[in-house]
Amino acid sequence: PTVSNYFHLNPMLSNDYQSIEIYDIFGKRVDTIDPQTEEFWNANAQSEGVYFMKGIRFNGKNGSQKIIVKK
């Protein structure tokens, strides 16, 4: 997992991913990121805790990563 409250997205994601969705521990989507236009996710508006980043690829396959928001 990645621990922070400010997350830098790899610029190479824009080649593979059409969107990145952020979900809280209860499965509620709390944010959506467009990797073609955004390079960061600022989690300051979110509570501390565990979140999941789900990448939706152009080819239909998805990837995910657990992140921990710590302030």
Description:
The protein has 71 residues and is mostly beta strands. Helix content is 6%, strand content 55%. The chain has one helix spanning 13-16, and strands at 2-4, 6-8, 17-24, 29-33, 40-42, 49-57, 62-69.
Short descriptors:
71 residues, mainly beta, five-stranded mixed beta sheet, 7 strands, globular
What does this entry show, briefly?
By secondary structure, this protein is mostly beta strands.
Q: What order do the helices and strands come in, and which of them pair?
A:
Blueprint: E1 2-4, E2 6-8, H1 13-16, E3 17-24, E4 29-33, E5 40-42, E6 49-57, E7 62-69
Low-confidence runs: none
Helix content: under 10%
User: How many strands, which pairing sense, and closed or not: the largest β-sheet?
Assistant: 5 strands, mixed
The overall pLDDT average reads 89
Number of helices, where a helix is a run of at least 4 consecutive DSSP H or I residues? 1
**Distance between the ends:** 15 Å
| Estimated radius of gyration | 11 Å
Largest sheet, spatial ordering of strands: 1-7-6-3-4
Quote the beta fraction: over 45%
Tell me the overall shape. globular
Number of strands: 7
List SSEs in N-to-C order: EEHEEEEE
Helix-strand category: mainly beta
What oligomerization state is this entry in?
Answer: single chain
